[in-house]
Amino acid sequence: xxxxxxxxxxxxxxxxxxxSIIKKxxxxxxxxxxxxxxxxxxxxxxxxxxxxxxxxxxxxxxYKKSKIFYNGKKIKIFKNFDNLKTILPKKVNYVMSSISxxxxxxxxxxxxxxxxxxxxxxxxxxICGWSLIRKELQRNKTKFIPVxxxxxxxxxxxxxxxxxxxxxxYITASGGPFINLPKSKFKKIKLRDALKHPNWRMGKKITIDxxxxxxxxxEVIEAKNIFNIDxxxxxxxxHPKSYIHAIVKFEDGLTKILAHDPDMxxxxxxxxxxxxxxxxxxxxxxxxILNNLNLKKVDLLKFPIVKILNNLPNHPSLFETxxxxxxxxxxxxxxxxxxxxxxxxxxxIKIIKLKEFQKYKKIKPKNxxxxxxxxxxxxxxxxxxxx
Length: 387
Known about the structure:
Layout: E1 3-8, H1 13-23, E2 29-36, H2 40-50, E3 54-57, H3 60-69, E4 76-78, H4 84-87, E5 94-97, H5 105-111, E6 117-120, H6 123-140, E7 143-146, H7 149-157, E8 166-173, H8 191-194, H9 204-212, H10 214-227, E9 234-238, E10 244-250, E11 255-259, H11 265-272, H12 287-290, E12 296-297, H13 319-335, H14 341-351, H15 355-358, H16 368-384
Helix pairs in contact: 1-11, 5-6, 6-10, 7-10, 9-13, 13-14, 13-16
C-alpha cells in the first residue's frame, strides 16, 4: 500500500529535497497535498509531476494568479488551511512541515490531527509554540520527528535511552563564514561576505543567522523544548567541517557521536523512511575529517549573541516569540543594507533587554493567537523606535 504524505512548503529547499527523494521511489508514495505561500508556478508544476490533486497557496495575490495560471479541473487549489478536513478525510502516514518562518506555526499545528507522523523542519513552530504543539501531538497520538540535522541526530542518539540519563548534549556549529576571521575585522564585514556560508547552501535569512550564530541559539532552544532538558545541559561547539552534528554524553559514562556529510537529504530521508531500514547512497567515512574534528567552545567575544542563552527561562514563554521577531526584523534590515553586521548583533542584544520585552519571560502562550498577536505588537514597537 502506498504511503500517503503531505508536504507543507514543498517549494522550499527542504520540500524540494524531499520530492527528489520521493521521485526515485514514486511507486510507494501518494502525495495528497502540497502547499506554498507565493511560488504558485513551481507548486503547480510539482502537482503535475507527482499527480497531486490538492494545493494550498496562502498568499492572496498568488492564489488569485494561480487560478488564472491554471484553469484545469484535475487540481483543486485552496487559499488557506480551513479545508483540511475535506482534503484529508483520513489520517495520512507522513507530513513534512518545511514552511519557513513564523507563518509555518499555524499550519504545523493544524495538520497534526490529520497525520500519524509529522516531521518538523520549521524552527519557529518548535521555538515559539512547542508547548501547544506537544499537547496537540499527545491529544492526537501523532508521532513527531525533528528534521534539523542537529536535532535529528540527537533524536537518533536517544533512541532506546532514558532522557534522565543525559549528562550533556553538544550541538555543533560550523561557525559560518567568520569562524576564522579576527574580531578586529568584524567592522569591515559586508553583506556579500556574510552570505558566503562555507558548507551549506541555504536561504539568505538563515545564512545570516548562521553568520551571527543566532541559528545555534535557536537550535539550543529547540533542543531544550524537544528533549525536555535544562539549558545548562546543552552546549554549542564550533566544528568548521559540519561533519559531526551532535554528541550526547550519558551519566553511565558512555558518549555517543553522530556524523554524516553536510547534506540535509540525510535527515530528510531518514525521517521519511523512519524504522524502515532503507539504504541511502552516501559517501564513505571521511577519516581526514574524523582525525581532525577541531571541536572548540564558542568564542563569545566574536559571537556574543550566544550569551543570550544565559538569560532564557527554562519554562515555555512568550519571550521566545520576542527573540524570533526582533531577530527577523533586524536581519531583514541588514539584508536591505540598512545597517552593518556589527550593529545587527549589537541591536539584537540591546533590544531584547528592553523591560517591555523582558516581562514576557513570565508569560506562557495559551494559544497560537497569543504568539501571532505578540509578533505584531513587537513589529509595531520596532517601527516606532525608528530602527
